[in-house]
Design goal:
single chain; about 350 residues; alpha/beta; six-stranded parallel β-sheet; four-stranded parallel β-sheet; 13 strands
Length: about 350
């Protein structure tokens, strides 16, 4: 009788070559296999796991691949994110049948389950795929894991696959995993939508502001000037009017930094902030503070290069301070302008 193929050895070699961090997790910690591999007659391998409340569950059924391919359309681009991999049937289907997806990101909380997956079938097409980003273990570094796919997530659609049978093993842990990763993915997507919508004005404003930036001061170069001085950040909103009286008498005792939308309310109560931040790229944004100009000559105006040029040129602040975000355009400005990164 012919012996079954040694998938584990073949998969482990591929894992070492293409996913060295996952390989180190499997080989250095030697996680014990979780559950029991079973192969009913005429069916493919499955994994039976007993949950903490004594319930026996099977990780897979015949609809796994169908569900995965339904969630991720045939011509899908962008990133596909799987929470819970099980034995890998859905992930292999995405790998083989969705060639245009740019990244396949898998979060698996249990290396013990992944160990079983390495044993039951040939995963080398998935493990060797350059699109694969694999996270094993209960404490993933979400920012680091998602970084290689960040640009794709910003600019294209992301497809989320929750392997519900995996969630049944530890619902709270898998839901927390999903929520934390989704928060970052959603933030990247919102950032990308903003760039797509306003990117042209960001570029136009940054190059227009270059004419005056070098005549002003850089917040980054004053990083230690306010050491040990308390700072109060003031934003606009319904709660400001309720709490505005607490800001009276703070002059000289704390550094008051206000958003431009909060300036009219502060001045109406006789409170002059030390710094007002104006970051909006749209010309309309200047209207928030334009009528406050005669009363605002004793404050500093804080801007980023993408701000509408009318604001730093027209608003009669004592001084304009420039600060820089982490995007590539502003990073390119920092060195020639002699700015020290915060």
């Amino acid at each position: 009788m012919q012996s079954p193929p040694d998938f584990y050895k073949k998969n482990l070699a591929s894992l070492e070559k293409h996913q060295p961090e996952a390989w180190a997790t499997i080989t250095s910690n030697s996680p014990a296999a979780m559950g029991e591999l079973i192969t009913p007659p005429g069916e493919r391998p499955n994994l039976e796991i007993t949950t903490t409340n004594g319930e026996k569950i099977l990780l897979h059924d015949s609809t796994d691949e169908y569900f995965a391919l339904k969630v991720v359309p045939k011509n899908a681009h962008g990133a596909t994110v799987l929470f819970g991999m099980g034995l890998g049937y859905g992930a292999l289907a995405i790998c083989a049948q969705r060639p245009k997806t740019r990244h396949i990101i898998i979060f698996e909380l249990y290396p013990e389950i992944f160990t079983q997956a390495l044993r039951c079938q040939d995963l080398t097409p998935l493990l060797s795929d350059p699109r694969l980003i694999l996270s094993l273990g209960p404490t993933p570094n979400f920012q680091q894991i998602l970084a290689p796919a960040a640009r794709t997530i910003k600019l294209e659609y992301s497809y989320i696959l929750d392997h519900r049978s995996s969630f049944a093993i530890n619902p709270a842990a898998y839901q927390e995993l999903h929520d934390k990763a989704y928060e970052i993915i959603n933030g990247l997507n919102m950032n990308g939508n903003t760039l797509l919508m306003f990117g042209e004005s960001f570029l136009h404003n940054a190059f227009s502001n270059l004419k005056s930036i070098h005549h002003n001061l850089f917040l980054e170069n004053a990083r230690d000037n306010f050491k040990d001085i308390p700072a109060i950040l003031v934003a606009g909103g319904p709660s400001l009017n309720k709490n505005i009286d607490y800001l009276k008498g703070t002059k000289g005792k704390a550094l008051v930094i206000a958003a431009d939308a909060a300036l009219p309310a502060l001045l109406a109560h006789g409170i002059i902030p030390d710094i007002v931040g104006a970051l909006d790229s749209q010309d309309l944004a200047y209207e928030k503070i334009s009528d406050q100009a005669p009363r605002a000559k004793d404050l500093f105006l804080l801007c980023t290069p993408a701000v509408c040029p009318k604001t730093p040129k027209t608003f009669p602040a004592k001084q304009v301070l420039w600060t820089f975000t982490s995007n590539n355009l502003e990073n390119a400005l920092i060195t020639p302008l002699g700015v020290q990164k915060m």
